[in-house]
Amino acid sequence: MFSNLFNFASPQAFYPVAGRMISWFGWSAALLGVAGLYIAFFVAPTDATQGESYRIIFIHVPAAWMSMFLYLVMAGWAGLGLVLNTRLSGMMASALAPTGAMFTVVALVTGLLWGKPTWGTYWVWDARLTSELFLLFLYLGFMALKEAIDDPQRADRAGAILALVGVVNIPIIYFSVQWWNTLHQGASVSLTRAPSMAATMLAGMLVMALAAWMYSIAVSLARVRAIIVAREQDAAWVRSGTR
Amino acid sequence: MPRKMRYMLDAKDLACERGERRLFSDISLALKPGGFARLLGANGSGKTSLLRILAGLTRPAAGEVLWRGEKLGDIAEGYGREMLYLGHAPAVKDELSVAENLMFSARLSGIAASNDQCRMALEALGIGNLAPLSARVLSQGQRRRAALARLALAVPLPLWLLDEPFAALDENAISRVRALAEAHLARGGMLVLTSHQEVPIAAGNTQTVNLGV
Amino acid sequence: MTAAIVLVLRRDLLVALRRKGDALNVLIFFVIVASLFPLGTGAEPGQLRAIAAGVIWVGALLAALLSLPRLFAADLADGTLEQMVVSAQPLPAVVVAKIAAHWLTTGLPLALIAPLLGLQYGLPGDALLVLLGAVLLGTPVLSLIGAAGAALTLGVRGAAVLTGLLVLPLFVPALVFGAGAVTASLSGIAPGPHLSLLGALLAVSLPLGLWATCAALRVALD
Fold first, then answer.
1. In the CATH scheme, what is the code of domain B1-82+162-213?
2. Is the ipTM of this complex over 0.85?
């Protein structure tokens, strides 16, 4: 029943489709990124209390959103792969993980850079930053597990189980860290809540988030194409160069 | 459904992949009560993989295995109550005595064996005297015998899947295992085994699956 | 189902009883880790009391982590694990029994010795009781999540370190609620909410850990 519906789930069929989509999403990402940065640096007003340094949220917040969203998407693909046993799903999850980890790092680094002028120190055990740090560990664990298992299909299934366990645990970890934070009275100024959100700020952030989204799609498609070629190098369609 | 009734074990168009390498494809195998199948092939041709697919451990890359007309994935431990799988590793724990090992294995297969039955099973393999010893002191061959003693208790299980049952056994033990296998087939049981040695087994209906190189 | 649990539980406990060293070493490791901290931080009583819960909990996490390889690896190597998977017993029952055996030989001893370490750190009586309760409630979570991690890394090179990478981040909620209960009790706040949250965590971890462990075992044996 699913064989027709999921025709594109075959790596061979997906490969050329992905190739056509990459440039489309890549250009969208570039244009939206330029527009978003323009709003961030030239349109959005200077913040009354934080001055210019707050502008880093235009990168920090979309990166943090993407980092969490991509884990969800990754777990979604992983679950799909487990249930339907499609090979492409595991490849998609593998392709998404590095991008998710990258956004996590971006969110952490921008958080550090913002922390110095605002709190006078690079790292405070703020609930959001701490959760982001543990999200990074989850991404790293996922990638390390896939890396360690030689058989790609076994790696896909094991990775999928881990991703699903992770996706159930992320809200629990997030909640527990917040609970811990209120208990120990950590930093009360949160980066995301800092400036009262003006409409232009929201617009800038949404445009940047959209740019990050397009970028993620473009990069994951490029990566999944590389994975397809690497895994199916013995298959006739790859060898004959018909791709 | 008449199809269901024809074969107890029905494996159709099986294929197996390890990594991205295809070990075999289009392998079919069907057994009726009393049926015996021998899996042949060179090292690395996928004999063990095929046996593991039949046991429901490995998922085939293509094809399906039916037991009493139902897919293996759908019956789960129901299959375990009717099938005995002895793999390459003997599944004998060093920390337990030979008798304790056998008792536990039998219970896992849903067979409540008494102490006497366990001793008789070990005797059938010629190691009755080892029953109280810790499995740690067993030699390789004795360990294999301790594993194979399960066959003597597995009378109620209609399907036996044995991976290299004659490996590391001496003449005496081979003939004992052979006798157990032939009695099983004569009762209407079914047997699939992989073997390097040409051990003749008398069966009403023998088929050979050659996986080649 | 119950018969299968009893069968596997009895066997695993018997095996553990004849290999007492394994469980004992984990316990000694726990005591050593907890005894190292004052040497690093200084033994000022107020400070020790403040870090006690965290130190003991992190020690318990590491001790639990160290004990994980013996959960499935030996059974995989000698073929027992595949016998359990193809057996007449439901796999979730087998896994429940193995995790229960792991907790009885690791988590329970850790919980019983934790108040002793609390004494070392100068915790008052009621905080010691809370510590005992929290570790009793929290260690089954470690066994459940840890079992999934151990099953996922079965037969993988560098399994021990990898297991740590996979499960330690997932241990965070147990650490937060478990250590939080003791800290709360120290500062005169009722530890009840923390313990309830630990209980809730256990309720979530039970089905999740079981499912993940069963699925991972099937993958490992495929």
1. 3.40.50.300
2. yes
